[in-house]
Amino acid sequence: MRFKVSVSGVALAAFVASCASPVPRFPAVDSPEAACVDGDMPAIGQRGITNQSTVYVLGFDGVKTSGSGPYCVLPGAHSLLILAKSREQVGREILDLELGPSRSYLIKARSRPDHFEVRVLDTSSALHTEIRVIDVPLWDGSPDERLARRWQEAATRASAATQKDTGARKSP
Description:
Oligomer: single chain
Order of helices and strands: HEHEEEEEEEEH
Number of strands: 9
Radius of gyration: 19 Å
């Protein structure tokens, strides 16, 4: 007896298996000191005219997010995995930021012919102060060892900082 296995069936099985495995969840912070970050999603009419692109925050400090924010974390140094997307282009990068207490940030992107120009704005006041600009390379969908290595390093740093913070609180 032969069984025919479809690609969609294999993909479904892989998805179900990944749901069963323990995955660290993004720890939301509910505090007046929290710093909140969100990706930009321009209005549909603006995307083609102004080269505005959608930005998704896919993870913080080595932990995946749902992709739709805002995400609130304790202030301090953080590594964010972002994805910028326009109609024809996609770019991924790890963005290292120092987030201030009780601040809100918006990550915006514009598509360029060979990269995305990503801007981080502090939106805590009406001025929307630009705090960082980086160029994000285009991504062709292939595995990116450099990005994977940086993401693992971010997870390791965050874990060490958490253990150090927990140990400091336990000490008299």
